[in-house]
Amino acid sequence: MTRPLRTLAITWLALSMVALGATWLSDYALELGIRLALLLTLAEAWNLLAGYGGMMSLGTASFVGVGAYTLVVVMNELGLPLSAAIPIAGLAAAVLAQLVSPALFRMRGLYFTVGTLALAEALRLFMVNYAALGGASGLFLSVDPPEPRQLFLLALLVLAGTHGLMTAATDSRFSIWLRALRDDEDAAAQVGVRPFRVKLLAFVAASFTMGTAGALQGLKLGAVEPYGMLGVHWTIEVISVVIIGGQGLRLGPFVGCVFVLTLSELLADYPALHLAITGAILIVVVRLAPQGLVGLLRRPARVSVAA
Amino acid sequence: MPSGEVIVSTLLSGLLLGGMHALIALGLTLALGVMGLVNLAHGEFLVAGAYVGLCLLQQLGIDPLLGLPFVGVVVALAAWPVQRVLLAPLAGKGGEAAMMTMFGLSIILQNLYVLAFSADTRTLDAPYAARPLQLGSISVAEIYVLGFVVSAVLVVLVHWLVAHSAFGRELRASASDPLAAAAMGVDVRRVQALTFALAAGCAAMGGVLIALTFSFTPTTGSTYLLISFAVVVLGGVGNILGTLAAGIVIGLLQSAGAIVLGDGYRDLVGLVLFLLVLALRPSGIGTQGRLVA
To answer: Three-state SS for B133?
Structure first.
């Protein structure tokens, strides 16, 4: 068994153990676990886009929001079970990614970033005004949201799937193409990497993942509305996690998630202060540790190998 | 459909509002043109201006329009160290690091505003803010006209500064080729810091006008950031008079959108237009070195 496969097997085993242990977890631990699993899912997806693919998206909220709205609509209108609704929510986000990609991929680098931000804001403004999907007040899920324990298990399942997808994407030839495009798109195209196709695949895979995470968030709240589900806080949280943890590194999202969630629990009573501190940490990390916390920890090891 | 007079009034206020958008977008286009900086904290400088204007009005009773130059100078002075401390050390690390730093700053500022002023919606009250101007059966609020005139004058002033002053010459040189400019004795770092301060000052003055015309909250900045990007892209990066024209065009189109689709869709029209323009100009929009004065 190759190393990535072994790591994947170990991670899945660990996730199953956590799932088995869920019976003994308190409601608070479950709530925290759900948040960690959802945030980690989003962060893994954003890390694929930005860390490996160099696509600094500020549009996370669009795909989270579309996933959440889709879940509520297909469950309310079509009466579909969760096992169908969650993948469909992911698909809807993937379709959105496919639809906007011709326009977004024409913008390179910083313009891609601004384009994704505009996309998220445009979607939010549309949902606020579009009465058929509830407008500013949003929609309620007509069935009761599942119990925390069941939701936690679902979140673990989605996380396990995401982890498998990300292992496939980051420990393969595909990852080399993607990183080549990140480092120099023109040079990579010269040696035969197809920029549009490779970037699109990464974008669609990341968006699918974000859509499923959004669906779980919608399920957890039992309701969706534009300010919460399409708000910029999703984008901020995910970016902080990946940049603080270490972008383009496999462990980055996990370390970042633990750090950001710990900070948010410590400062739970001071939301504004918490965000301001997050912003400050972001600036410091960009300046002093471009590879994040994981990069800092890895550096000594690398030096000793070179010596 | 609303009556003819209403349509003309709406379009006219859109046009006038477009002038204010141009003033706000001016700083963004300068930062992008001179230092290739995507300033994601631009909207927060706008809101900073609005809060300084509010303090002037509440504490000292100074009329916001009279206090406008003061607001511009205060925010420009506050922005100067931001460039020196946060951005200058990132030179040579690529645009991404600078952009993310400004993203971090925008989060910090938004939340500092919440801590200092609470999340309440604020307005700047002035006698001319709500007074309508009648022109036959067409009516627009007086502040729209004042805001447009002030904005247009400021944009033309900055255009003159960039096109004809000694500082403008250094600025254009730094934009087109920083290395060559430095070799010829231009202090590029100083020019970049001054440009950043000028950009923030313009945004702050635009913020006062916006606060007089509408209302504002700590997070108002992000909406105007995106409208400004639309203006910058349409007008051409670094093109100052193009910014004025693009601001007016976007203002008009937003009003047209509001008439046809309903008032809630006003901002959406600007964003969709922005995405279309970006998508239809495949060469992308030039980043550094396209400063057209």
So the answer is: strand
Given a contact cutoff of 8 angstroms between Cβ atoms, the answer to whether B175 and B186 are in contact is no
Neighbours of A78 (CB within 10 A): 10
Please give the helix or strand (H or E) that residue B288 lies within, else none. none
Task: Report whether B201 contacts B75 (CB < 8 A).
Answer: yes
Please judge whether A283 and B265 are an interchain contact, meaning their C-beta atoms are less than 8 angstroms apart: no
Question: Phi then psi for B134, rounded to 5 degrees?
Answer: -100, 135
Q: Which two tokens stand for residue A263?
A: 């900070």
Number of other CB atoms surrounding residue B256 within 10 Å = 16
Instruction: Name every chain A residue with its beta carbon within 8 A of the beta carbon of B103.
Output: 58, 239, 279, 282
Closest C-alpha among B284, B225, B273 to residue A105: B284
Q: Which neighbouring-strand residues pair with B59? A: none
Using the Cα atoms of residue B281, residue B282, residue B288 and residue B292 in order, give the sign of their dihedral. Answer: negative
Tokens matching residue B267? 């901002």
Residues of B with CB under 8 A from a CB of A: 38, 86, 89-90, 93, 95-97, 99-101, 103-108, 110-112, 114-115, 222-223, 226, 229-230, 262, 264-265, 267-268, 271-272, 274-276, 278-279, 281-282, 284-285, 287
Q: How far apart, in whole angstroms, are the C-alpha atoms of residue B215 and residue B69?
A: 20
Q: Is B151 exposed, middle or buried (0-12, 13-18, 19+ CB in 10 A)?
A: buried
How far apart (Å, rounded) are the C-alpha atoms in residues B49 and B210?
10
Which two tokens mark B80?
């100067």
* Residues B200-216 pLDDT 10s: 999 999 999 999 998 89
Q: What is the DSSP code string of A207-242?
A: HHHHHHHHHHHHHHHTEE-HHHHS-HHHHHHHHHHH
The string of pLDDT tens digits covering residues A144-174 is 888 888 899 999 999 999 999 988 888 888 8
Q: For position B115, what pLDDT does the model report?
A: 94
| ipTM, 2 dp | 0.85
A79 sits in the region (left: phi over 0; alpha: psi -120 to 50; else beta) called left
Average of per-residue pLDDT values in chain A: 87
Identify whether the C-beta of residue A206 lies closer than 8 Å to the C-beta of residue A48: yes
Instruction: Pinpoint the alpha helices (H) of A47-147.
Output: 60-77, 82-104, 110-129
